[in-house]
Batch of 3 targets.
Target 1
Amino acid sequence: MTTAYGVGIGWRPEIAGFVAQLPGLKFAEVVAESIHEHSDLPTGLTDLLDRGVAIVPHGVKLSLGGAEPVEPARVTHLAAVAERLGAPLVSEHIAFVRAGGVEAGHLLPIPRSREAVDAVVANVKRTQAELGVPIALEPIAALFDWPDDDLDEGAFLTEILERTDALLLLDVANVYANALNRGTDPAALFDRLPLDRIAYTHIAGGAEHDGLYHDTHTDAVPQPVLDLVTALCDRHRPPALMLERDGDYPPAAELRSELDAIAKASGYPTVT
């Protein structure tokens, strides 16, 4: 994904009308599992495609970080959605969501071990074999680290990307959350990653509860995250930066303000 799309937004049915009215929008993302194989595309998505807006399907259920092989039917669905949308790429998480047939219902962190790297690499390659487009991998926000990790986060992610030749979906809000909870410098991770592999970025809000910062997607993007966006763009400006909101949607004026703030922090034109 080399085209510079600028600032985008995650398409959700609840804010479809708002997204449709963004005159400068060139990039959006949709949760892949929300697109059903035998149903028409939502009208809002069809209208965006007719306008030439690139739409990326974002998977949440593959469980690329699980010890078990990815389920073929889920990979087939992701590939079909990408083809249906004419997507330039797809994305998924470096996480697991099921084990032994039990669904966690949430993205869970994996240990930064050599065995975990091998498992992720194997599952990504299984997925790539069926996809007609590149895949971007997203490291998640985690409230804890597994003990006795073999690798730090930078080395862990870099090895996975190099062994799979995958792209990177860098969630700046996740970087902020993880660093805040671990007591580390968030911008330091940028200097450990192959930033030229970034396909796009997520930017979202969060909130602190009981001494831990939670990546909620329901709060406004805080200034420290916007400052991180600027720090990232000073090193390497991603092709696209996406506002990620999931639930508790604010009025349109507040969403416009968040998109404008991301544009200002990144140096891209506003889409509003």
Target 2
Amino acid sequence: MTEQKVTRATFDEVMVPNYKPQDMVPVRGEGSRVWDQNGKEYLDFTGGIAVNALGHANPRLVKVLQEQSEKLWHLSNVYTNEPALKLAKRLTELTFADKVFFCNSGGEANEAAFKLVRKYAYDNVGPEKHEIISFRQSFHGRTLFTVSVGGQEKYRKGFEPVPEGITHVEFNNLDALKAAMSDRTCAVVMEPIQGEGGIIPADPEFVRGVRELCDQHNALLVFDEIQTGVGRTGHFYAYMELGVEPDVLTTAKALGGGFPIGAMLTTDKCAESLGFGTHGSTYGGNPLGCAVALEVVNTISDEQMLADVQRKHGLFVEELDRINHEHGIFEEVRGKGLLIGGALKPEWHGQGARFLAAARAEGLMLLVAGPQVLRMAPALNITDDEIREGMQRFARAVAKVVTEGPEA
């Protein structure tokens, strides 16, 4: 059979049009570098949207995946397997959690978490305690339940009616949350840093206040750490810097270093409500994903590596401030660790795609977080030299866009 030639145009022919991928088609990656079909090299500041935490084709992950692929791929949850048990044990050693549920993605992890908090309230109080509160501009996934809990109407539009009993309030506004909570509240769901909402960190005092309100109302606190987890902020999970423990935590993206896996972490007390037969996942906890994830976890939980992520944050900010001093495109540079957002000034609002296209022409892969924020989420092991080289490319891209001027 003759090998098929595929291009970006093939996407439009055969794929559902819910994405608009870039014109280039990557075919190979190594560390923080990617090559397209034409052999052009790019520096990757996207990390697969904070997924490829150890870069592309990391030798240690490749080795583990190859070894496991020669043993077991899949069993189903009628049985368990060693990689899943080892990974669950390690996650409970490193975090507040006593119990783990494995799935395939962040959306599935959040789906499990939202079902758990309602089931826990149902078991311990009754059906009237079912209301979930989350925050405007939050993002929690693409299932019907998770887009409903997420605080961005554009992701719900056209899919109504959506699940009821969900309220959205302003992020970092404790008074607004206090006014919304009642004895009917079963859980508050939040991101320690709103990712898709614009790389907006939660104020530490706000987080502590959320925990106190949850305790007062006998409500569970859910931290969505899909994007902030597994070293992204320079802490293994972002909650560890805040001095507040959740009752439930969701994690995915970087957990598998590029191999699809997600997990919901919780306490013994909460876990009892997901008893036999209440929830499941055919592929969740598969040996391949769990073996790779264990290597990721053991590598990134190293104290020196986490400290290095925090140090590299300073280098990114230094370089971005230098570019901004010359071109004045950002109102603010924010974020933590290697999750960084440059909030564009009003005259550049809605024009993030122009900066992405110009960066791509210079051999740099970037992201946006909403239309007003340029986002960078590179591999955690990106080198200082690669950061500086990428910033040189970014500076040339910014200069080009600024020369053209804002769109009317």
Target 3
Amino acid sequence: MPLALFWFFALVMLIGGIAVVSLRNPVASALSMVASFVGLSGLFIGLNAFFVGIIQILVYAGAIMVLFIFIIMLLDLQAEQKRTPKLAPILGGVGIVLAFTIQLIGILSKSPNLESKPLDLAAASTAYADVSPGISSKLAEGHLPDVNLIGDVLFKGYNLPLQIVGVLLLVATIGVVVLSKRQTT
């Protein structure tokens, strides 16, 4: 990933995170969280974690944030009244950030910058030979089955629990909508 793109996505993520905390309007704060998720997704894609980056957009920036905004609209939250900030919580927050930064710099300065060992794909292909021949053949060819491995294990080994969780989420969503409806009598 080019350095300029890294800094762009990092700034989008950080500015979105700061806006989540600092904005008073709950809808604007939720939309700022979407911007932060988009920046994080760009960083994941820059690390060649394409699956995690796309899932970050689809699940978090898409589904979860739509649910958050839906709940905010159902609760009919009003903008918070302005109050004078107290000095003790601000100093406490700044102190925690400084302590974490000092600790992080101390740890990173002492850790060696070692390269990781290459993966032994031949040994992994023999381990998956009985479980999944498709994954075993991809590993033997030298390819890493990113999404194939997850899908194969999830849908072959845990298909019934996955379907049960899907039905439970649907029932829970319908229950939230029914319970949140205002009854007029």
